[in-house]
Specification:
single chain; alpha+beta; Aspartate Aminotransferase, domain 2; Aspartate Aminotransferase, domain 1; 4-stranded mixed beta sheet; 4-stranded antiparallel beta sheet; 9 helices; 10 strands; about 40% helix; pyridoxal phosphate binding; transferase; Putative tyrosine aminotransferase-like; aminotransferase
């Protein structure tokens, strides 16, 4: 397994040149997360086409994680990767836990977008079916609830969720911008945004791991260190909480940063 880079200054787009440099004749698939966790990116249609074309060039299938596909609130509309199934075969992954806000319900689906029957011809479709026949089934309670959740959830539940996430995202972004050592990047979807830390503005804190550890210990605020994601001196901030809790958390982060700021 190899990791390709995303480009923060280009709305976290896939580094296509870097991707092609990593791929070889043994590469069978690439994974795309759209909308993105942890970055909150939502890819434009043109970029998704470039991804599909790169996959086709190397004979790869695209595994598209679209668990947050219905939680989009920015200027970029969500476009499913499957629209480019004619260019490269697509496996789309979805989940009930995000749109319907039931974290912990390990229930999802796989959709094959493969009009050219490439996955069928190479036995991939059959392998997926065989795996599902041996995997553990969801609890009976979950199975019983799924049909009603899908059929009976009122439309205002979805719109209220989007409006809340849009508001929380804006508050989170604006709050972090007020803190000199943070450079936040706007979220277009999902429940997260990424922010870059300027460690040179902090006293006695050398990296993102130290920052997050001390922030949790001193202010009881938990953010994810970027090192866990391969991004040193970044943090992922989750804004899917009550607005009052979010504002309290931001004020604690601000107090922590000012308390540990280098004296000019």
């Amino acid at each position: 397994m190899r990791h390709y880079d995303l480009l923060p200054e280009q709305d976290w787009e896939v580094d296509i040149d870097g991707l092609e440099a990593l791929a070889d004749d043994r590469t069978v698939a690439m994974v795309v997360i759209n909308p993105g966790n942890p970055c909150g990116n939502v890819y434009k249609r043109e970029h998704l086409k470039k991804i599909a074309e790169a996959a086709s060039k190397f004979g790869m299938l695209v595994i598209s994680d679209e668990a947050y596909g219905h939680l989009v609130f920015g200027s970029n509309p969500f476009v499913p990767m499957g629209v480019y199934g004619e260019i490269a075969p697509i496996l789309t992954i979805g989940s009930i836990s995000k749109r319907w806000l039931v974290p912990g319900w390990r229930f999802g689906w796989i959709v094959m977008c493969d009009p050219n029957d490439i996955l069928q011809k190479h036995g991939v479709a059959e392998s997926i079916k065989n795996y599902h026949n041996i995997s553990v089934r969801p609890p009976t309670l979950t199975l019983g609830a799924i049909t009603r959740i899908l059929a009976e959830t009122p439309e205002d539940f979805y719109s209220n969720t989007i409006n809340l996430l849009r508001k929380a995202s804006g508050i989170c972004y604006a709050g972090l911008r007020e803190i000199p050592c943070f450079t936040p990047y706007k979220s277009q979807g999902s429940m997260f945004l990424m922010a870059k830390l300027n460690m040179s503005l902090l006293e006695g804190i050398d990296n993102d791991m130290e920052f997050c550890t001390r922030l949790a210990r001193e202010e009881s605020v938990v953010v994810l260190p970027g090192e866990a994601l391969g991004l040193k001196n970044w943090v992922r901030v989750t804004f899917a909480v009550e607005i009052s809790a979010l504002e309290d958390g931001l004020s604690r982060i601000k107090a922590f940063c000012f308390r540990n700021a280098k004296q000019q």
